[in-house]
Write a structure and sequence with these properties.
17-stranded mixed beta sheet; alpha+beta; 4 helices
Length: 276
């Protein structure tokens, strides 16, 4: 018998979603990587498993990158999981737990979802970096880009600000920046062109996934880092290749993300045909 799954996306950031709340599913990093492959598997930017909720959460969301490594945060995937659980329960307000903490969320009549991504963490030990450094301006450069800001949104982010996003060879410089020795846990690398104080244009080289059409936690980091540099207000639209989300960095330090959710298709897969 096949195991059911959903293919979902938020602004083109796509996910394979499995429901493991009733019984555990046999997922190893090797099998996750095989299922995530776009040619020989289902294909996704992140691999999501919904597990039973713990400690007051309506569900636990486990996130894996397509290389099989585990991730701590994914804002676009959180919106998708919230949408599913809200449809089941009829609740407008929910809380999803990840390995990085509890994420409260609210659904809206237009189908969009707001997720409280928690506080932005700004110290060098939070990102984390390999050595003490002011996270507003990192001593890091590659090619034509330099001087990023960094923060953690439950996962590490570095954001470069550039005058012309189209001119940045992200596919060429992204891998080296992701694996730079400054980031002991690797990092998500964002590239931002400020269109206006309340409108940012963003592309992200995601840790373990490469260049994606959208990155929710990356959008949060982009707004936080842009505001810290005096380039943006505390609330802005962040436009990515796959769509636009609204990010607000509240005075209490929490970052709210509001954006759309979509289901591309549902299906079944025989897990035993993939490596254990």
């Amino acid at each position: 018998m096949g195991t059911p799954f959903l293919k979902m996306h938020g602004c083109g950031n796509d996910f394979v979603v499995f429901d493991a709340r009733r019984h555990a599913l046999p997922f190893s990093p090797t099998r996750i990587a095989a299922l995530s492959d776009r040619r020989t598997g289902i294909g996704c930017d992140q691999f999501i498993t919904i597990e039973p909720g713990t400690e007051g959460a309506d569900a636990f969301m486990r996130i894996h990158n397509p290389d099989g490594s585990e991730a701590g945060a994914c804002g676009n995937a959180t919106r998708c999981v919230v949408h599913l659980v809200a449809a089941e329960t009829g609740q407008q307000r929910l809380a999803i737990r990840t390995i990085s903490g509890l994420l409260p969320a609210t659904t809206h009549p237009d189908g969009s979802v707001t997720v409280d991504m928690g506080p932005a963490r700004l110290d060098w030990t939070d990102v984390p970096l390999a050595r003490p450094m002011d996270t507003v301006r990192l001593d890091l450069a590659r090619g034509s880009v330099a001087d990023p800001a960094a923060c953690s949104m439950g996962n590490p982010h570095a954001t470069f600000f550039v005058p012309d996003l189209a001119a940045v060879p992200i596919a060429q410089i992204g891998p080296g920046l992701e694996h730079d020795p400054l980031f002991p846990q690797r990092a998500n690398i964002g590239f931002v062109q400020v269109l206006a104080p309340d409108h940012l244009r963003l592309r992200v080289w995601e840790r373990g996934a490469g260049l994606t059409r959208a990155c929710g936690s990356g959008a949060c980091a982009a707004l936080v880092n842009a505001h810290r540099r005096g380039l943006a207000t505390r609330r802005a639209a962040v436009t990515m290749d796959g769509g636009t989300v609204t990010i607000e960095w509240r005075d209490d330090g929490h970052v709210l993300m509001t954006g759309p959710v979509a289901t591309a298709f549902t299906g079944e897969v025989d897990l035993e045909t993939y490596p254990p």
